[in-house]
Write a structure and sequence with these properties.
Strand content: 15-25%
Bound molecules: 6-aminouridine 5'-monophosphate
Helix content: 40-55%
Structural class: alpha/beta
Order of helices and strands: HEHEHHEHEHEHEEHEHEHEHH
Largest sheet: 8 strands, parallel, barrel
Length: 259
């Protein structure tokens, strides 16, 4: 089912990014109407933006509203545009449940999924990473979310058990993203200073995906300079008068440093 299951997700999205000359991941968060109307709307947005994006990220509400059969067909159509797909479910449960959900998304044809590192490894996310990587699916871990209250969890100071050193929670998560061989880390575009710090920790091994550009107040140029690899953009494209043009402009700006 998948776009090109011969290669790991990290390589597939990089190839699409290079060939389409863009670092924009389209976020589709639509759920109004009947399943066929929603999937029709989704594919119309993909059709308008496909030359300017390198992946499509679906909100859980979109897939729930469309239902499994129609979602399989929708993902097939997105793959026909040469684009990998991500389900944004932020998994955060015990291993058995996480793995069952991961298998289900894999069965629908998703190329990658998001997880919440608060669940931890043993008895938590290990099963998801193992299953996903065996099936060349990508796992993208939250490191610092984009919304204001993200500071309550991701920004809190924690004391490390071994060294008694105090460090921000997100730095622990950035280190885990490297240790766990995550295929990406989410750091909000609303906090360029955090992107820079996360980049120092993760280097080139774990690409940074930044949501929050536009509608949430994040600035693409500042995030790009700070180290963002991919921009997750939804409403600033999907609700624009011309989604195609909006995506094209973001795409152009997203590769300015590559020139
Ligand atoms: O920290 C996060 N912030 C965020 O907005 C992690 C996310 N996964 N997202 C998602 O990114 C959010 O659910 C939405 O799908 C997308 C941003 O959309 P928009 O603000 O560009 O419309």
């Amino acid at each position: 089912l998948r776009q090109n299951s011969q290669k790991p997700f990290k390589e597939r999205i990089l190839e699409t990014s290079r060939s389409n000359n863009t670092r924009v991941v389209l976020a589709l968060d639509i759920h109004d109407g009947r399943p066929l109307d929603i999937s029709g709307h989704a594919i119309d947005l993909v059709k308008q933006t496909c030359d300017s994006i390198c992946a499509v990220k679906f909100g859980r509400q979109t897939i729930l509203s469309i239902g499994p059969d129609e979602s399989i067909e929708l993902l097939r159509q997105v793959h026909d545009y040469g684009l990998p797909t991500i389900i944004d479910d932020k998994l955060n449960d015990i291993d058995e449940t996480n793995e069952a959900i991961t298998r289900t998304y894999s069965g629908l044809g998703f190329d990658a999924l998001t997880v919440n590192p608060f669940a931890g490894w043993e008895g938590g996310l290990e099963s998801t990473f193992t299953f996903a990587h065996e099936h060349l699916m990508g796992v993208i871990a939250l490191v610092y979310m984009s919304h204001p209250a993200a500071s309550e969890g991701y920004g809190q100071q924690v004391i490390r058990k071994e060294s008694k050193e105090r460090i921000p929670q997100f730095e622990v998560f950035a280190k885990k993203a490297v240790e766990w061989h995550a295929d990406g880390a989410v750091v909000g575009a609303t906090r360029p200073d955090i992107i820079q710090r996360a980049k120092e920790i993760m280097g080139k091994t774990v690409p940074i995906f930044s949501p929050g550009v536009g509608t949430q107040g994040g600035d693409l140029g500042r995030s790009l300079k700070a180290g963002t690899d991919y921009f997750i953009i939804g409403r600033s494209i999907t609700k624009a008068q011309s989604p195609g043009k909006a995506a094209q402009e973001f795409a152009r700006a997203s590769v300015l440093l590559d020139a």
